[in-house]
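Render this sequence as a predicted structure.
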Amino acid sequence: MAQRRRQANVPGGRTERRVLKLTEFEDNALYFKAQEQGVSVQRLLVESALTFEQGETATDRKAAVQAVLKAERQLSAIGNNLNQIARGVNSGEPVSAELQQSLEYLRGVLSRLDEAASTIAKAGVSS
């Protein structure tokens, strides 16, 4: 499903209005930045002004949360594979060097994922 480019509707609508004067260059820069992020110029301006971290929009944070959730699903699948490997090792099969390297790599990925989740949590983001 395509991402909605406009802000969500609110009860009673948005009654406040601001007029903004821009140079042609500023207007074009905002337009292209909004296109890059897949949002409207208005949404870009609101999110940029109301963001927790400078240079990060709510859309960016939402994408980060979705990426963490996707990684969580992938890690769940990896966990199932690890259970199958553990069953084999527990039955006496030797652990290969390749498996050892893969487990070390996985530990590093998990560590980075924990750091990313902590950063998102500190920013006060919810999915």
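Summary. Residues 35 and 90 are 54 Å apart (CA to CA). The chain has a mean pLDDT of 78.
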